[in-house]
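Q: I have three molecules that I believe assemble together. Could you output structure tokens for the complex as a whole instead of separate predictions?
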Amino acid sequence: MPETTDSQSSATAVADAPAVAAAAPGLRKEGEKARSLRSDAWHDLSRKPMFYISGLLILFLIVISIWPGLIASGNPLSCDLAKSQMGPTSGHPFGFDTQGCDVYTRTVYGARASVSVGIFSTLGVAVLGSLLGGLAGFFGGWWDAVLSRISDIFFGIPILLGGVVFLSVVKGGTVTTVSVFMVLLGWPQIARIARGAVITAKQQDYVQAARALGASNTRMLLRHIAPNALAPIIVVATIALGTYISLEATLSFLGVGLKPPAVSWGIDISQASSQIRNAPHMLLWPAGALSLTVLAFIMLGDAVRDALDPKLR
Amino acid sequence: MGRYVIRRLLQMVPVFIGTTFLIFVMVYALGDPVAAMFGDKAPDPATAAQIRHAMYLDHSLPAQYVHYMKQIFTGDFGTSASGQPVTQLMGSAFPVTIRLTLVAFVIEAVAGVGLGLIAGLRRGRLADSGVLAFTLIVVAVPTFVTGYVLQYFLGVKWHVANPAVAEGAPIGDLIMPGVVLAGVSLAYVARLTRTSVAENSRADYLRTAVAKGLPRRRVVTVHLLRNSLIPVVTFLGTDIGGLMAGAVVTERIFNIHGVGYQLYQGILRQNPPTVVGFVTILVIIFLAANLIVDLLYAVLDPRIRYA
Amino acid sequence: MTVTDERTGAAAPVSTTPLLEVRDLHVEFHTRDGVARAVNGVDYSVNAGETLAVLGESGSGKSVTAQTIMGILDMPPGRITQGEILFHGQDMLTMSAEQRRKIRGRKIAMIFQDALSSLNPVLSVGYQLGEMFRVHQGMSRKQARAKSIELMDRVRIPAAKERIGDYPHQFSGGMRQRIMIAMALALEPELIIADEPTTALDVTVQAQVMDLLAELQREYNMGLILITHDLGVVADVADKIAVMYAGRIVETSPVHDIYARPAHPYTKGLLRSIPRLDQKGQELYAIKGLPPNLTRIPGGCAFHPRCPMAQDVCATDVPLLHPVGAERGSACHFWKETIGD
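A: Yes, here they are, computed for all three components at once.
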């Protein structure tokens, strides 16, 4: 852990040396500029296998949710009851489900629902949350007070409970309704983080200095505060993406999320779960795909967090 | 301290009103409870209007809410779809769910903190990587998958545990559902503890504790763990609500007739009194847990107490 | 060695072993940027009742040496590659962890720079003081509390009895540092290591805390290793000085000689860079360049790239600590020229 030193100041006498009881020796490099956090974070990420594995996995998932036909030629909705719960056969490596649909095709097509709910919800939550939270943190006052109370209210409702109530009433069962619900109940999480990050950034000496020099509010927000508040938001949003996917599956499993004929891992798992004794393969593939997807996003979020959080180096 | 409690209680009032109102709006305004009663048949308009009047549905939404809250505070939660008073359902459901939540909570706290402490103390080593990998998998695999898999293997195949919970929900039967319910939270607790322990083990005061010549056990338990647990306690407290909500899934898998089951039935049968009643009680429990956490926080961290 | 007869050196009884002696200590750290050699052959010793000031910039290895003596070095990334640390003639580096723990706090105690972060924020000061007695002497809570109040009185904390249940953040900086001192003194150790004990304090409070420390040291006849970068503090309380640079001792001397006639260009630079009233209006002197990166310490004399007197030999040959009169040493090839300059 390198001791932070100001490489600009021509270091001088001992009397001027920073009053730091060094736990580890200073590692000053003559003439070398201190590495910026961003390049440091990138350096850190680029050496993490977890980052590449999860990144590639996510890329793959996005590609097959846009073009599922690339790797699955069948139709997820063309089913043959005669093949109900049959095991793997040639051309149908994962076997068939109760309705006699091809499990492989359905597993591939299921990615689209999960990934879109995840991405739409996260984008919505991130935009709404950072906007509201950021403004509350920046302007403070009554705006902040009102927003804090409102987010307290939303925090008062456990998200799964709210989902069950809200979605059962709305009766939409589409990617849009599920995503809208998640944004509705999810934004306070990001808003709190954005608010905290903005308040911290606002108190930084250099931001205070910019204010003293007469920088405009817009300039302060965009130039000085937003870049600093962004890192924690990105981290939380990435991890949240994984949990939203998991939540969508849970809601679909409970019968209030996506509904047939939508193709979703949650629905398939729900249908397979009652047949686990007869046909475990029906549960295995969609459950495996779902877990892997959630895992990929959480791992990515983890890797990014480790890289951005120098405290834990 | 007394003033702090009162201030917190007062702050909870708007949150309570807001949360219950939100749920109330969702159930009463977005759905049509009268139409739901008749299922697919179109109700006779006169009858429907009569029912609406009897159910106080012909008033404005805020008035309905106030009316409903008044009833609740006199102990009248309305009647469920099966004609039983909602309070009666609560009487049978809450003890079961509270027991399940407690089992899950103990598992979550003990295993989560234990794993997190081990990982945090051995940062970067095998035990740490093992715990991290374990938590990642637990978080990634959805609860309902873990639930069915455990039920199938432990309950059906190997006969280690009872695959379904017996009448009265004895604690022994609740252990497996408790593990399933605790799973994801347990992983979060482990990770939070790990981070907190790792951060605090670099703190100056910990170095002081070692320099004082204290035995390692004392350094870890009195100085490191106590400080590291502050954020963990917060999480544990706020998670009680999450656990009770998560019981919706767990109770369905293991066929437990608790809050989650009743709530689910209420939703399926579109019975507003059941849904709003149960959710209101859950919100109260959740808020109470938050208050307790806040107070505990002040006990654990004197810097808060006097601020 | 005795305290009073330092200057003449003649009275020093050679036969007795010093209280603490560091011999040829080497410590390195494994970092992302390579191996940082923090301590590269440090020798020094302290006797009972004596104050040794260790002077150096951040990263000179003074704190790492202290942590190594104390046995609180983080290992890894730290590693002791060579050397001995003799306490009463016994090498502590070969002792078991349990033996060392029993020395810590009881025989050798340490005072840290930043009392606010060095005291546990969630435990009362009474608890933290009392812990010393309860753990090391098996006292009851009640006895420990009484002893703690006594200690707080000792370091002149007003209303000790009322404040014993208070938490560190409720005290002023000076009072907190007094609590640190009290904690170090609790078991009347033979040696105290004070790592920049007054750096974090206001100037007005610095003198009070330093005086208190010096007074208590005399009273208990303890050895004191005072780690500092402040030459002003040293002059008043130290008996002898060791100046460190890049993990080595470059000059060692009784305290007064070093001010009058420094024998190493680095020491000389340090002395010249102290602001003085009679130099008002002149530019302050500064040693040119930066302290070396410890992963790439220059060959020969580590100071040569910054040294105004450097010759070719300085870049190739490591200077040994040449004896410069009685009780003095300088690790400079040109110490004669430096001293006579």
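A: One point stands out. The two ends of chain C are 30 Å apart (CA to CA).
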